[in-house]
Write a structure and sequence with these properties.
heterodimer, A: alpha/beta, Hypothetical Protein Ychn, Chain: A, five-stranded parallel β-sheet, two-stranded antiparallel ribbon, 3 helices, about 20% helix, B: about 100 residues, alpha/beta, globular
């Protein structure tokens, strides 16, 4: 197989009001089966996708937020969250779901998947990618 | 008059436009992604805090819960209502304007 390409999925929409977030997550989980180098970025209202304690029971909508916890099992373990987007929304890292993955090269140690990066760092990460997909 | 806002203030200007045009004494209800406008400490919260001096602002509880937002994270003065409260607001106001 040819060399794995670097994929970044950029998530820019809030979780419930539109289908961008849930559709984007599905594409990431499907795409993960193709053994590419996959990471995700959360900017703008996309940071709300990772908010803890989402409970859609009273709205009659399906709560898909627990599915983000599956990303680590699909080796999608680099979730970059833009610090400025959190700050603009009055959020901190503690507001986000504690997503982790198990590193098989390090005796299955549980490691955090979420990395808070500033705008300049995210810009550099975007530049490094081969393929960018926006949701 | 009852005004509803259903878009995130970070994605759309609907909350800003609504608050600039509503008469004092009106009711503004934040629903769906509009409830993000109720978050304390955001770049939009000063706008809402200022509006609260002249009108009542409500946020729909099921939509807050769906987004993981609890009452203690909201701008002080915003009233949280359920679907029953939404119905009451729709009935007690003579007109409804939806800022879609």
């Amino acid at each position: 197989m040819s060399k794995a390409k670097k994929f970044m999925y950029i998530n820019r929409h809030a979780p419930c009001g539109t289908v961008y977030a849930v559709e984007g997550l599905e594409v990431v989980l499907i795409g993960a089966a193709f053994e590419q180098d996959v990471c995700m970025a959360f900017v703008g209202d996309g940071v709300f996708q990772l908010k803890q304690d989402q409970d859609t029971a009273d709205t009659g909508m399906k709560n898909f937020s627990p599915a983000y916890r599956a990303l680590g099992d699909y080796e999608v373990n680099r979730l970059y969250v833009e610090r400025e987007s959190l700050e603009e929304r009055g959020l901190t890292e503690d507001d986000l779901m504690p997503l982790t993955w198990e590193d098989e090269d390090d005796d299955w140690a549980e490691k955090p998947s979420i990395h808070i990066v500033d705008r300049a760092q995210l810009s550099d990460l975007i530049e490094e990618q081969d393929i960018l997909l926006n949701f | 008059m009852l005004h509803t806002v259903n878009k995130s203030p970070f994605e759309s200007s609907s909350l800003k436009t609504c608050l600039s045009l509503v008469r004092s004494g009106s009711d503004v209800l934040l629903i769906e992604d509009g409830v993000y406008g109720a978050l304390a400490g955001s770049t939009h919260s000063p706008l809402v805090t200022e509006a609260l001096e002249a009108l009542r602002v409500y946020a729909l509880e099921p939509d807050l819960k769906a987004r993981g937002l609890s009452g203690d994270r909201l701008i002080p003065g915003i009233e949280v209502v359920g679907y029953d409260g939404f119905v009451d607001l729709a009935c007690t106001n003579d007109k409804i304007q939806n800022w879609l």
